[in-house]
Amino acid sequence: MANLLGVVLFALAILISVSLHEAGHMLTAKAFGMKVTRYFVGFGPTLWSFRRGETEYGVKGIPLGGFCKIVGMTPQDDDVDPADEPRAMWRYPVWKRTIVMSAGSITHFALALVALWVIAMSAGLPNPDFPSTEQEFRAQPAVVSLAPCVVVENANRACQAGDPVSPAAKAQLRDGDRITAVNGRPVSSWGDMLDVVRGTKPGTATVEYVRDGTPATATVDLASVQRPPLDDPKGATAAVSALGVALQPSTPARLTYGPVGAFGATADFTGTMAVETVHAMQRIPQKVPALWTAITGGERDVDTPISVVGASRLGGEAVENNAWLIFFMLFVSLNFFIGVFNLLPLLPLDGGHIAIAWFERARSWLFARLGRPDPGRVDYLKLMPITYAVILIGGVFTLLTITADVVNPITLFPR
């Protein structure tokens, strides 16, 4: 039930985001005097609507987005009433049209920024000094956090009934103890400890550690577990020893801020997220084969793109496991991605309309300098083949991601 609630909540959050996206277009268009005739949440048959002024507002039967109708978005719109010609969108200065067309993405960015600002003050944002690579983790001091159990088989899962108790916990070690030696072999870092423990036979071992500045020794019964090589997580498993501890990094994973400090932290994190989003979009073509592999029975690559269906499923998992921070970070990431993606200079995306508007402006300026007549507006009808191609490619890609998210979804919490 909790999972279903999370799925519904996340899907609702996406629907609200998209509806606000269209509201951004509508409100800025109205502010500039453009005529907006319709604003609807959803598609398909109309369930309910009302008219206020010159605009009809309503809800349609298929809750997969929304739309607003601005009169004369292109010079080729053939449904513009002659009385509305002066208020047709294409007649307005390019800077006004740019604001209107980018307002949707700006709305997504605003939603993401507000959510991040609240997260920065409550749960905290990722600490930029926290180790992020395998090398950085291995270089950390061997300060341990006790695991509740030892998973014997090679499984990335939480503890279950019947799993052996952590050997370190049985030996009365505590969170924050720093391991200095195992069976007399010195340990100077977390990487050293992993190598030494795995190189020690299962069974009784002497562990030297420092607690609150005081050296001490414990006798530990090292567990025998199946694990792949440290340098090859997907390699063949073998029997090695385990102490039943995790790394306690020397820096916190997240930092919380006050209301003022949260602005700077949010800006810094947004810059990092922008770079990661661009890199993720560049990798999309490379991930298509991996999506097909996942659909046809192969292992699902966690780095493959997900659809709204997949994001909603992850939101459901987060709620089911009381991981609300993951839920809201998914919301932030999705809004930021949609905002960036929608600004790509391709029709029918908003970025395509913006690119054409500025192309027209630059071309008119150049022709004026050359003493030639203004070539006028771009003929959108001639661009329709490209538009259809973009829609077709986008549709196929969406179908691939949805199918993969249904038959072989990415999961956050191994079951």
UniProtKB/TrEMBL annotation:
GO molecular function annotations of the record: peptidase activity
InterPro entries tied to this protein: PDZ, PDZ_6, PDZ_sf, Pept_M50_Zn, Peptidase_M50
Predominant cellular place of this UniProt entry's protein: membrane
One record GO biological process: proteolysis
Cofactor: Zn(2+)
Localisation: Membrane
Membrane topology: Multi-pass membrane protein
Occurrences of domain PDZ (ranges): 140-213
Transmembrane segments annotated in the record for this chain: 99-120, 323-344, 386-407
Key words, A-Z: Hydrolase, Membrane, Metalloprotease, Protease, Transmembrane, Transmembrane helix, Zinc
PANTHER family reported in the protein's UniProt record: MEMBRANE METALLOPROTEASE ARASP2, CHLOROPLASTIC-RELATED, REGULATOR OF SIGMA-E PROTEASE RSEP
Entry's family note: Belongs to the peptidase M50B family.
Identification of the protein by name: Site-2 protease family protein
Protein species of origin: Micromonospora sicca
